[in-house]
Amino acid sequence: MSRLQCVGVDIGIAARLGSDFLLSDRAMLCLHTLWITSIAIVSIQRRHIFSVEASYDLTRHWTLRGKHAYRLGQLSLDRQEPEFFDSRVSLYVLRADWHFVNRWDLLIEGCLLDLPNAQDRRSGAFIGLCRHLEEQLKLGIGYHFTDCSDDHTQRITPARRCL
Known about the structure:
Strand order of the largest sheet: 1-2-3-4-5-6-7-8-9
Structural class: mainly beta
Number of helices: 0
Number of domains: 1
CATH architecture: Beta Barrel
Strand content: over 45%
Helix content: under 10%
Largest sheet: 9 strands, antiparallel
CATH class: Mainly Beta
Distance between the termini: 24 Å
Radius of gyration: 19 Å
């Protein structure tokens, strides 16, 4: 458990639980969950985020990755007599990594952000280039062709309840 403080206005508690599983020398599965409760001057928020990620090496040069994350957020605008309403968000990501030259990768990613409470869906893409510096360290640059955020931990505000 950890204590959160944002600009002196929010105070809260977060707990994270997760595990990574190496299924074979070519496949990996990651499961993570996060609970956040925060109290601001005028509101109370509770968020639970669950994500599952998988990767599979198709060949020596191609890796396919996928991710699904789900956030159930609840917000009450009254701290004295809390009355919570739900805000649900789902994120779907599909990514391909092409290992085209020794220690260099080209990444291509597509994402869909589903906001059912706002009756909205946003999609986007990412392209990037990475250099392997060490076995577990990469440095890269890329560009997002989207306005949707993959940060499910951000606060729910009354004007933008579903992000």
